[in-house]
Amino acid sequence: MTAQQTAPVTVLVPVGSLGAGVREEEVVRGLEAGAQVIASDAGSTDSGAAYLALGVSKNNRGAVKRDLEILMRAQARYRVPILIGTSGQAGGDLNVDWTRDIALEIAREQGLTPRIAVIYCEQDKATLKAKRAAGAITPLPPLGPLDEATIDACDHIVAVMGPEPFIAALEAGADIVLAGRTTDTAVLAAYPLWKGMGVAPAWHGAKVTECGAQCAARRRGSGVMFRVGADYFDVAPLDPDNLCTPHSVSAHMLYENSDPFRLVEPGGVLDVTDARYEQLDPRWVRVTGSRWEPRPYTMKLEGAAVGPCQTVMLIGIRDPEVLRQLDVFHDRMLAALTERARRNVDADPDSWSISLRIYGWNAVDGEPVPAGTPPPREVGILCVVTAPTQQLATDIAKACNPYFFHFPLNPEKELPSYAFAFSPADIERGPVFEFKLNHVVAPESPTELVRMEFVDLTRTEAA
């Protein structure tokens, strides 16, 4: 049941991602100003599939503990709930449990007794196969229909949650909610939606503030707060020397979103085509005119798996002749390395690959460099060998080592020497981790594919 209220709801977003650096003075400032909930994202898919496949966080445990400790002490003092989405970077069950254990450690050390709701969204493969058979799973571009072999290949699969599980936890009396994979906006929109505020401004305010103070005009401070009413939201940074502007607020719709006017979320689409941004005072911006278009409820599926193995080598080059013809050098060296590996390694050549990435030239996008681009002062060339096993990847790298170190642009000249960055030169990187799914599932309800457990430390204290 929705906990309706008529006054606007104020949400404190202490940081863009838990572990990135909460500022205690900002949290206190926001709560003293009347914030009713603390909400933060704690991860994403930005850093690749490894964190879901392995069930680990990319963040340092100490950094996450520091941030969470600040928030938990504030929660105990001001009696406002904490909502955390995509716990432990990827939001799988192992990631959530890792975050839960940090929270329990903090509670023991600080003498805190919160009621903690732990929300899981990792999916059982049999459940997904049944959903697939029922036609409840559909692909997103560029993938095609999902088959059972792909489901089986995944090590961990999560269904990305909307706000409803958070609302259910709040209804059940949670002081702290540690949730699995969630849309960045859902964790911030949940409390205003629970309190009956406008649907469109709740979602729009959440989108603007998902990265904390990045929606502000100046690069200072970590947190932000937004105030949601029936048909508007207001936003300002928590740092008193920072400010929001119509430009800084409106621009955030471009962040991780291909359409600057429409944002797809579970159960609907936020449309900000007609949104208006008004400077209320030197620090606050008001936004009106957002619209919410209800759609059939779907949850995105993310599945990660272990792939082949890689071994890498890195050299630095300052040879002026090479630097003047980097594209030619790349093609000739790659052809030579591939041919040498085929001659010297007893393995199916279709089972492995070699790639060269020229840092300082075009390693990031891999696209041809425009004609007339001046040569760089120096480059680093990364040789990446990908193969079914680590041993094979390393064998190929070792076979390539002499050519990678000495390959001449002009075979008529004396052999050059390039600078290996490390010794031994070949570095076993381990397995590659891959996302296997880009699909959505239609649940029977927003909480069908979600599991909730409570750790009630108030009962422990009472005992």
UniProtKB/TrEMBL annotation:
Domain Acyclic terpene utilisation N-terminal intervals: 91-215, 243-403
Pfam families recorded: AtuA (PF07287)
InterPro entries named in the record: AtuA_N
Identification of the protein by name: Acyclic terpene utilization AtuA family protein
Annotated source species: Phenylobacterium terrae
Organism lineage string: Bacteria, Pseudomonadati, Pseudomonadota, Alphaproteobacteria, Caulobacterales
